[in-house]
Write a structure and sequence with these properties.
five-stranded parallel β-sheet, 32% helix, binds flavin-adenine dinucleotide, EC 1.6.99.-, NADH-Q_oxidoreductase, NADH dehydrogenase-like protein, 2 domains, FAD/NAD(P)-binding domain
């Protein structure tokens, strides 16, 4: 462990302002860590809270309500905030190299940079799709789409052409995002007295059903909702090519093509390319392999948490809830590492509660075989999410 023999403070570098690191920063702000200098480097100064993202798209929350102000949180924790993107690390020299050209040194490194949707297309196809991550990039495209839809709606229904939106990815994020976008755009059309039926929706998934990790009743519930909302569902449709205004997949009768104005990509995620190139232990999806102490396999000075980490003995779905739950044990182990004490194991829960909304302030709760649904579930989720965000808005003794 790096407890400095020289007496100089240890440099702790947090890479990425994800769900685990925001908890770490809050913890270290509440109980400052003596003998360590803390730096947070993150590509975004405002980090989104994933649970509220569909609600933001649906128009239930504004930008500030769903983002955590990282410089302010870092200041609370006594940490230096650096707005930059890490593009590689040198384990020998203990340096993190950033896109701007600067390098940051560390004695202890912790990585919480999330994941990126895997886009199995050539470079040309990739240029025409809108990946949901990074969220900041998605948000810009979403705001542009909103504007485009408003102009189309304002142009009137006579001789106006439809707007077709295709979402690729049938997991909870894809389904929820489609329903939220649809709810919002239909509202915009209705306000401008345009016919919302001019908005056409398609959901494509390579699997045989949507929400494959959820129970049958949950899958049936969402299939019913999608049907009632006029969403065309394409199952077993692995998209393998795309261009300006179209996408293609191999169906049972050969290649099938769909014309779409917007192609949103929300598929299974992988780890960032630089993690794979780092020489650190990664799994087949490019995620860092971590043990129960959240140290990267074979490393004593490097920790990882959230989507970018795969717990070797406890494989779990990629979900913000696990990233959040790793925050406290990670803060504890960083503290122990600085003090030269033994680290403690973290064992994530086996089952977790997913609250998946349908855009219209209605949600489905899903946990293993249990499920329930209603507007009350959405209000419950809203209460949980707002309470989480208050942890960072109402910092003890802090300025608002
Ligand atoms: C539409 C949608 C809805 C979702 N809804 C839910 C939900 O309701 N519940 C749930 O549990 N999960 C949900 N998820 C999944 C959830 O988003 C992820 O599991 C969660 O965001 C993972 O958190 P994280 O902390 O690992 O990473 P992230 O939240 O992705 O945070 C990563 C941070 O690191 C920064 N960063 C990235 N790369 C670098 C770099 N190279 N250098 C420096 N900084 C970097 C980013 O700017 C960001 O601040 C949803 C996902 C989507 C797409």
């Amino acid at each position: 462990m790096p407890s400095s023999e020289s007496g100089a403070p240890d440099e702790i570098l947090l890479v990425g302002g994800g769900h685990s690191h925001v908890i770490v920063l809050r913890e270290l702000g509440l109980r400052p860590l003596a003998g360590a200098r803390l730096t947070l480097v993150s590509s975004a100064a405002r980090t989104p809270y994933s649970g509220m993202l569909p609600g933001y798209v649906a128009g239930h929350y504004d930008f500030d309500q769903v983002h955590i102000d990282l410089p302010r949180l870092a200041a609370f924790a006594g940490a230096r905030f650096v707005a930059d993107e890490v593009i590689g690390i040198d384990r020998g020299a203990r340096l993190a190299h950033c896109r701007s050209g600067r390098s940051l040194s560390w004695d202890l490194l912790s990585i919480n940079v999330g994941s990126t949707p895997r886009i199995d297309l050539g470079a040309e196809g990739r240029a025409h799709v809108v990946p949901v991550k990074p969220i900041s990039g998605f948000n810009q495209r979403w705001l542009a789409l909103l504007q485009r839809a408003r102009l189309l709606a304002a142009a009137g229904d006579v001789a106006a052409r439809p707007l077709t939106i295709a979402v690729v990815g049938g997991g909870a994020a894809g389904v929820e995002l489609l329903l939220s976008m649809q709810y919002r755009l239909r509202q915009e059309f209705a306000q401008l007295r345009a016919d919302p039926e001019r908005l056409h929706w398609h959901l494509l998934t390579r699997d045989r059903d949507i929400l494959p990790t959820h129970s049958r009743p949950v899958r049936q519930h969402f299939r019913r909702v999608l049907k009632a909302r006029g969403v065309r569902l394409h199952l077993a449709a692995a998209v393998d090519d795309a261009g300006a205004g179209w996408l293609q997949w191999q169906g049972t009768d050969g290649a099938e093509r769909l014309a779409a104005d917007e192609l949103v990509w929300v598929t299974r995620a992988g780890g960032a390319a630089w993690l794979r190139d780092s020489g650190l232990a990664v799994d087949d999806d490019g995620f860092l392999r971590v043990g129960e102490t959240l140290q990267v396999a074979g490393e004593t000075h490097i920790f990882a948490a959230g989507d970018c980490a795969s717990m070797i003995d406890h494989p779990r779905e990629k979900a913000g809830v696990f990233a959040v739950r790793m925050g406290e044990p990670l803060a504890g182990n960083l503290r122990r590492a600085v003090a030269g004490r033994a680290l403690v194991a973290h064992r994530p829960q086996r089952r977790w509660l997913a609250l998946i909304s349908t855009g219209d302030r209605y949600a489905v709760a899903s946990r293993g075989a249990f499920s329930t649904a209603g507007h009350w579930v959405w209000h419950w989720k809203d209460w949980i999410d707002r309470r989480f965000m208050r942890l960072f808005a109402d910092l003890p003794g802090g300025s608002a």
